Each structure stands twice: as structure tokens, then as C-alpha cells.
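chain below, 156 aa
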Amino acid sequence: ARRLVEAGARFVTLAYGFWDYHGNNFGNARADLPMLDQALSALIEDLHDRGLDKDVSVIAWGEFGRSPTINKDAGRDHWGRAGSLIVAGAGATGGKVIGASDRDGALVTDRPVRPADVACTIYESLGIDPRKRLLTPEGRPVEILDEGTSVHEIFS
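prediction:
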């Protein structure tokens, strides 16, 4: 990913592993999480060491959270009520936690952040007005995002 950025790529997407742990959640996580931790921390450290951390955003995010209860197959199912993500670089303040869930990780209890808020924050960090209107091929104006507000706490 770092080499692609250095070569001029403006966006790099990495997919890692199989995270749909509907069964054997703990065994799968024990195998995958150490490798993810090593790769993600190495990327962030590498970008920092080369001075690219101010210009590159690193975002680790799934499309939803995982259920707070273990299912019959020792797994976790899809859960849209609460989730988490990691943001580093591009001016983000490190070591910050924004929001909270209940003790089971089932429901957001403080500072809810919706996917549209994350998208709004990413667009703004790239210098793109998320409310900018683009024209469809038919000439109809459409906002890039029609909802969401930036999560400014990431950068303070």
C-alpha cells in the first residue's frame, strides 16, 4: 500500500482475510487478529517514518459490527446497531476514542457516528465538499452526500 502511494496512487484498498465469523469466532480471531495487527501497525509506522502520515489516511472499517452474543455455531452474526473503525494519518489525532457502546457492545450509548458521517469526514479530509452537487448524465443535480456531518473530533 505504501509503495502504491509513493508511486502516485490516490486510493488504495486492501482486503484482508475472511471476517464473516458465523462459526468458530474465537479460533478464527486468534488466527487472523495478530496478522492484521502486525500489518496495520507496520503500515502506519512505515507511513510515519517516511513522512507520508500527514498526507495519507488509513481507515480500517467493516460494513457493520458483529453481534454481542455468540450463536449456536460459536460465531457472531451481522450487527448493524454498533460497530467500530480505526482512523490514522492525514491529521487524525492518535489514541483517541470517539463514542461508546454499552457493556455488551450491543448499542451505542455515547456519540453515535453513522456511516454517512464517516463518509462526510473522509470527503472533507480530502478537500471535497460532501454537499457539492454533481450532474447526472441526464443533467439532474445530485449531492455527493445528502446526509451526514463531519466527525471533527478525529482531528482535534
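The radius of gyration is 18 Å. The first helix runs from residue 2 to 6.
thats it, cya
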